[in-house]
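Figure S4 source data
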Amino acid sequence: MGSEARKRARERLKEQRAKEKKAAARRKNLIVIGVAAAVIVLIVGIGYAVLNSDRGEGYTGPLAAQTLQEDGSVVMADDGVEAPVIEVYADYQCPACRQFELTNGDLLKERAAQGEAIVHFRPVSIFAQQQVPISGNSLRGGAAARIAADHGVFVEYNDLLFENQPTEGREGFSTDQLKEWFAGLETSPEQQERFDARLDEEAAVVTEFTEEFLPALTEDALQEIGQETLGTMVLTDLLTWGADNGHDPAFLDGTYTGELIDATGSAYTRYSGDNAFRGTPAVYLNGVLLDNNTAMTVRGLSEAIASASPGKVETQPLDNGGDAQ
């Protein structure tokens, strides 16, 4: 073999080795990618399995009695039941509240139906002072739930609100949607008519409050008392200040929107110390605030209820049963 032939042979061999090296590198990369993808799938699968293993299997049995309270809250328990009291503070625009409902809503229904728990639903609006549309969503959802309570279907409507919770920051809970969801429940045409009429009234109040009254009140408060002081005030305190400084909140009197705002303010003053109300969801067992590991898991909440003594409901039933009567 001549020198030229040997040179061409060496070049062909060099090219062949380069091709084999590239092919080997590609095979290695594909193996690494495949392993990484398998690990990701495994992690996601395990996470999904763990998440769903801690959710209830779904409760489809009868509900315990629903009793509307004087403050607009609702107690789910049959008459005469003595059991631990679970209080659930939730805002219908709160994503974590939705997660709590999806995780433990069926557990609470089942425990109440079995007489093993008294469930006290306490809707609030911690987002009422946020910018529109968050504030409007929160208040409209809460007002609609309160109207549903007048007609004895609070728990069912509560489920629908969380199932259809608007994405935070996007406008939702329109009056048409809220009316449509109520229409899907076992209610009469007369109840639907009364629900729709009251909802229209409340929606107008929410719009006035979030788009006109509160912005003007907040602007004046910033100028008069400053951001530092304003930042320490809950909404009910701000409304009290406003009433003394040219911002009359009387249009909220007698409305479910105003009732919801008052309920939120009461939550901040009802508890103190380690039990202080700081946001939603807040779940109390016999007046003691549960930590997230307990409240946000089926096993944790179930074990807490099972180990607790009977409690006492601190509110009183509404004598006339609400507007539905």
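Figure S5 source data
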Amino acid sequence: MSVEGKKPVPATTITQLVDASDSNAANTSTAAKMVSDKQADKVSPDKKASGESGKKIKVLDRLLAADMLVPGSNLGRDIQDDYRRIKRPLVSNACGRNKAMVERGNLILVTSSVPGEGKSYTSVNLALSISLEMDNTVLLVDCDVAKQGVSRMLGLENVCGLVDVLENDELHIGDVLLQTDIPNFRMVSAGKQNEYYTELLASQRMSELVDEIAGRYSDRIIIFDGPPLLPTPQTQILAGLVGQVVFIIEAGKTPQALVEEALQMLPKEQAIGLVLNKTEGLFGRGNYYYGYYADDA
């Protein structure tokens, strides 16, 4: 399956199948533990100035249980290299030589056409891979409020997060920004369910919130795990707020017509990376197929 634009960038075939099941990853049983409010209040002056709450969560055990890209997991060197190849152009567009060419390149949306294609799995592993960069930190924001795949994977489905900030003018992003026991990896949960979530995303407050987290830290890359494009209007709103999109496609499952329909919903000027997973590669191994979709129209 291929999707062509006016200026396609040569794609790279990346070996090694990753089981991209959001549901399997989300069912791990080890609970992440929040520090007490008393401990969280003991924030250094530097962190108070930066707007971070100082709250710290332990996610390493859950990531190990889900076989994610952390030391001690069963994922091999090939998987690490896969994500190195995927993240390289994204980091370059966010912080490198291409930064001036990609407006808001440090804001990256991960989405797909339909549910079940490995979106949240990819969001977390991509964030973990970027956290290994020497000069960058990464903030992962769960914007899939209905499913909360990332929040459930990390045990944060009942933690105050994005929706709470959008609802409450007295809350700030720093109040819900969580440090983790993974160096350079920060997290914002989805927050509570809200039937008017689409309207909250389309609000001026959301736009101001994105401006704040994009501009506050010049070395930070922000990854938004959004809902699939076709079932809801929410991701189309999010796509208008970011500079880059990583679009997940499950080979052999998602019809090409659905992929093309979803891609047409994204802004044409964005850098859109395609990740085609669960394809059959050489010697029966699975692989990622990664490339770019672009259109000047």
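The first strand starts at residue 9 and ends at 15. The radius of gyration is 18 Å.
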